[in-house]
Write a structure and sequence with these properties.
The structure is a homodimer of 148-residue chains.
Chain A lengths: L16 H20 L6 H12 L5 H7 L7 H10 L3 E5 L6 E5 L1 H22 L6 H14 L3
Antiparallel strand pairs in A: 1-2
Helix pairs in contact in A: 1-5, 2-4
The structure holds a DNA duplex (23 and 23 nucleotides).
Chain lengths: 148, 148
Amino acid sequence: MNDAPDAVSFGLLGGTVSYGLKRAYLRVIRDLEEALAPHGLTPPLLAALSIAAANPGIAPARLAAAMGHGRSRAAPLLDRLEADGLLERRDGPDRRSLGLHATRAGDLLLRRVTPVLAAHEARMTVGLPDGARDALAAALGTIAASDT
Amino acid sequence: MNDAPDAVSFGLLGGTVSYGLKRAYLRVIRDLEEALAPHGLTPPLLAALSIAAANPGIAPARLAAAMGHGRSRAAPLLDRLEADGLLERRDGPDRRSLGLHATRAGDLLLRRVTPVLAAHEARMTVGLPDGARDALAAALGTIAASDT
DNA sequence: TATTGTTATACTCTATAACTATA
DNA sequence: TATAGTTATAGAGTATAACAATA
């Protein structure tokens, strides 16, 4: 139990949820980027497509809010997904509102990506003791949801 | 138990550690940015200063690696910390190497920021059941540490 | 007047590659 | 040749503000 020649201390930040989150996030986002790249997706594009597919007719502003962003973040993501034929902006309830819908190609891509995502998830949680994965997901959900 | 007019589903991503991490990270980084701004710090600057202070004489490359980055990420952070008088680049063991040292002002700032960070940490974990905070920190550490 | 979607803009974070000095 | 630090450059993510159309 001493294979590092010289362990680095994180000082103030050691053992905090805050900095642990940052380092875990960095690791996860890189792995996911790599896993998705062959499918022409990035993590935010997948998130937008996944939410749109699960909530047919959702408005851009609501999709952005679900992702934790402001309205203006949606446009470039939707532009890209629409250009790739994965999603459509259709008319919404208002003449000023839009309703988003995954296309057939979008649904197929999501199905194709499902095992990729599952493998990624397994890779990220492989070191966790039994039951810790679910507890972790729950704790993360609590933190994210407390976003006033 | 039904106060949201229409809950948004995350589809594929719902319940995953991967996406939970992303949303929790967004919430935490925003809160921390806000909390640190009055002290002239950003989260990465605090991380670099905290690590440098806890590991006197550490080399820039090792500091960057501890933060999960490549060598080139260190320079701009160190430039800024040095310009603010919080950190010094001194000579290292080699003529090509440097040793980083927090200045007195850097140490004082860290001390001043300690309660700010503790309050931030408390804010982020207030919704978690007893014992979940430590389990969360441990799980995050496991994920981050498995970074090959 | 408020809301929806968009555009413009800027700033931070991050990565890759190339350069210099030293080993 | 390899390593340490830096610089240059580019790209992605995010935020704010302002705009046009509609309500």
